[in-house]
Design goal:
alpha+beta, Immunoglobulin-like, 2 domains, 5-stranded antiparallel sheet, 4 helices, 18 strands
């Protein structure tokens, strides 16, 4: 091989070697840059990594779209995770009878949530019917009233309270000198009653209704004679794709009987007036979050000859079977008295 050819081959080899070294160096530089870029990305703060607090921090408090009290609560809660459990509980109440006269010696039981858990305290109303709780801290509170021989109208006045979140419907700020008023009524002695409890049945939408006899405690498909109340059912057509938010109802009416339904009344004494021809249990598409497939109701009734009674009716809809299941307790005083306190020793059999 001539010297010229050898030199040419050697030159090509040198050039190839130089090129290989150059490209490998560039590759190494690229990899180094990529590693640095990835590291930089990993170290860069991310809004998602910081959570919702970062989002809130980026928006001025005045632009949160809430009232001043809520804004202050949210700001303090972000600064102190336990803030909502440290609120001063200030509560003032007064208990009276239905004539507005104060009741002394009513047992009042408070229960409240605090950092230490669920706390309780029991006090008694004073000679002016007053009671209060204003030396503890927490978040929520409930109140319960009891007095021997008395019934508490526990649905007439608020009994569950929120002291931290100002946007909660139960939020409460107690004011000295402006107590919440609670009502109690002396319970009458038990009188002989016709009583039937736990009677179960079905009311089909396709039928003319079912009939309950409060004298015998029997449910049947025929009206019969005295002491009969009629129950009829209605429900939207069954749709397997819609398990809630349909309309259903159970209507209660009777011949020679009128009704009164109001959960603010205690059950020991029937109201004297405001009775109507029929009452209805159920739920509709307009009830929203309050929609339910089951309802129960205390219902007073008065006969045309001036006797009183009460029912407790529980209704559960079963649209796939086109029916409403019912459970009834009934108490009837045939003496003309409005007293409906039951004692098994005085039961009329």
């Amino acid at each position: 091989m001539s010297r010229k050819i050898i030199l040419s081959l050697l030159g090509v080899l040198i050039v190839a070697t130089v090129l290989i070294i150059f490209f490998r160096r560039e590759e190494s530089v690229d990899e180094s840059v990529q590693v640095k870029e990835v590291a930089a990305l990993e170290e860069k703060p991310s809004m998602a990594d910081e959570g919702s607090e970062a989002v809130v921090d980026s928006i001025p408090p005045e632009d949160w779209g809430v009232d001043a009290a809520t804004q202050a609560f949210l700001e303090k809660s972000m600064a102190d995770p336990d803030y909502e459990w440290k609120q001063p509980i200030k509560f003032y109440g007064k208990v009276v009878n239905l004539d507005g006269q104060p009741l002394e010696g009513v047992t009042v039981e408070y229960g409240w949530t605090a950092l230490t858990g669920y706390e309780r305290r029991t006090v008694e109303s004073d000679s002016n019917g007053l009671f209060d709780l204003d030396d503890v801290r927490g978040k929520t509170m409930t109140v319960k009233l009891e007095k021997d021989g008395y019934d508490w109208f526990n649905t007439r006045t608020q009994r569950q309270f929120e002291f931290a979140e100002p946007y909660d419907p139960k939020f409460h700020q107690g004011v000295p000198g402006e107590p919440l008023i609670y009502y109690m009524r002396e319970r009458p002695e038990a009188e002989p009653l016709v009583a039937h409890r736990g009677k179960k049945g079905e009311v089909f939408t396709s039928s003319g209704g079912s009939f309950y006899n409060y004298l015998t405690g029997r449910l049947s498909q025929s009206a019969g004679n005295n002491g009969v109340i009629r129950l009829t059912a209605e429900t939207d057509s069954f749709d397997p794709e819609q398990s809630t938010n349909y309309t259903w109802s159970l209507t209660i009416k009777g011949s020679g009987v009128s009704f009164f339904a109001d959960d603010t009344y205690v059950t020991s004494v029937a109201p004297e007036q405001q009775y109507v021809e029929s009452v209805q249990l159920g739920s509709s598409t307009q009830d929203g979050a309050n929609w339910g497939s089951q309802q129960s109701q205390n219902i007073f009734f008065r006969t045309d000859d001036g006797n009183y009674g009460r029912l407790h009716v529980m209704a559960t809809v079963r649209p796939e079977s086109e029916k409403i299941n019912i459970r009834i307790d009934s108490y009837f005083n045939p003496s003309g008295s409005r007293a409906l306190v039951f004692s098994s020793k005085k039961r009329i059999r």
